[in-house]
Fold this protein.
Amino acid sequence: MATATNDAQLSPPTRRYSASKRLLPYLLSLPALLVCIGILIPFFTAVFYSLQRFRLSQPWNRSMNWGENYLNFLSDPDFWNTLQISLTYAFLTVGLELLLGLAIALLLQKPTRLNNFVSIMLLMPLMTAPALAALMWKLMTNPNFGILSYFATVIGFDDMRWGASPDTALFTVILVDIWVYTPFMMILLLAGLRSLPKQPFEAAALDGVPKIQQFWRITLPMLTPYILTASLFRLLDSIQQFDIIYALTQGGPGDKLMVFQVEAYLNFFQSTNVGRSAALLMILWALTFFLSNIFIKNWLRLRERARGEV
Amino acid sequence: MDHAPIWERWLRGVALILVVLFFMFPIFWILVMSVQTNETILRSPPSMAFEPTLQNYQALITGKLETQAGSLDIAFMQNLWNSVLLSVCSVALALVLGVPAAYAFARHKFRGSEDIAFTLLSFRFAPPLLVLLPLTLYFQDIGLADTYVGLIWVYQLICLPLILWIVRGYFEDISPDIEHAYRIAGHSWLSTFRRIALPLAGPGIAAAGLLAFIFAWNNFIFALVLASADKQPVTVGALAFVTASGIQYGQIAAAVVLSIAPTLALALYAQRYLVEGLSLGAVKG
């Protein structure tokens, strides 16, 4: 943009100089690109694997079967279970984290010393490795000595088995996810809240608009781009969640928590079914791509509208 | 100007306490568990009356676990060292590769630059296993299986997009005029980059590097798939330790504390950078 024209005025018109100038950006980004290309190759291999009958235990049986892995999913209850549990997990975690994160951000909105201190403290769960967070919660929910199991008995849930019971396993992993990732929502929304212009609120207060109305009519609409970005990031991460679920229950009990990546991991390493594993991951990738596109389109539209009105 | 009614202030206070309790309690409780013996941990009901002891940490640091069944070797310190090595090297490599590239993307709108930038970003959204599973087979072929070099390369998947995206945003926010003035004064491109652009983007580079370090440290799945026991970082090592040590809960808690302490300390020390990096990474990304 402005850079380009400035460069043009600046550069002396010698040929050697302009040639090296044109090459410079490529030279600067080349090393980073090369490293990534090394990672792109396995990506295409995975696409290829997903179109093959390929079991590590039966290398002689390896052959192209084109869409068969995908077609098999249609009549495969395990696949539908995986899809359902992944979507449930993703939308429940993101929805709850959004509500909770927004509530906490509103609570901490005023930049007092106490509020800033609390918001810094809340960084700690976010900076804890999710796998280790799951381990911490596993210790706290241990049936023999876990403090949370003890609390559960105190309030009357005598037989609360947390991650070990099919009834409460989903609840337990979602609780850990909320513990780790709500601060992420909170930080982004707090940054958004504190950057909102003051005038609309002052005008509304002058007109005697009640606070609840101010929230629905002014705060929420103005905050929507932030809400969408934060939710998009969380959604894409959450639908791919592996660490927390694997560390806590390894997808169990039974197939209760077999989300995409856990199922693909076990398919690859336990049943050595590379073809199915790759096909599962391709579907997960398509799903994230699809979801992110919806979000980005909405986000762009909202941004345009916000710009048009202001 | 804001005179909230008394019940609202009370409500806010209670809500704040609940929030702090929920988010801080697990960390506090793990700390408490880590300085107890197994006997006091296993008491029911749990109580805070105990003699704090450092024997769990001692066992982890010396690598010898004394149990009734005899002494057991634990390699937890090796895991901790692996984490340090992998995270530091990955971030260093990502900075060396990523900062010049970020500068190129920010300053020169060359052909295909947006496409390349988006391709790099899209790595962040691809399921990691999609790349990791074929990679396990490739790494065996080219001899990178279970090596630090192979792991550090794969860790670029996390570190590089982060650094590229955040640092690019910082370079874009710096007006190019200063650089032009310096160039007109007769300085080379390289010294302009080193003396002007780099220092001005310093906070951004720090924020990106910090965030990349924490993400690398906290990563679990890469090493779970690609590393064997002696190359595993703490995230994977701690989980393996649980299976190996069985019921040594005090030591498990101490291992968790040692594993999360570095990132938490870093986060608290540099929280301003961190919040900035997180917001930038998300908003500009």
Notes: The radius of gyration of chain A is 25 Å. The longest helix of chain A spans residues 274-309. DSSP finds 14 helices and two strands in chain A.
